[in-house]
Amino acid sequence: MNKVLLASxxxxxxxxxxxxxxxxxxxxxxxxxxxxxxxxxxxxxxLSAATLALDITGVPDSLSATYSxxxxxxxxxxxxxxxxxxxxxxxxxxxxxxxxxxxxxxxxHYLDSLS
Length: 115
Prior knowledge:
The protein is of the alpha+beta class. Helix content is 34%, strand content 17%. It has one domain (2-111).
């Protein structure tokens, strides 16, 4: 339990630091596509095929009340914890797909058993 809590805290800190340490010239938001993307949330938000290929989707309906597009949350991914539960990673529009994948990879690394 403590390992999962520590890992969650680390990822939250990492995403915050990555987001705060970036400037507008180095980050790219996910472009809204018109007709070519796949609607992943039912809310009209479309993500590119490249984003979907990275296992990043739109924010699920079950989380969209808290993490709404009004607050600029537009992408979601998850990591399976050793106990079988999901750790949700919800990203705002200023984070690049690479930053989301990196945060997910670091969390996965901390959750993997080395023995």
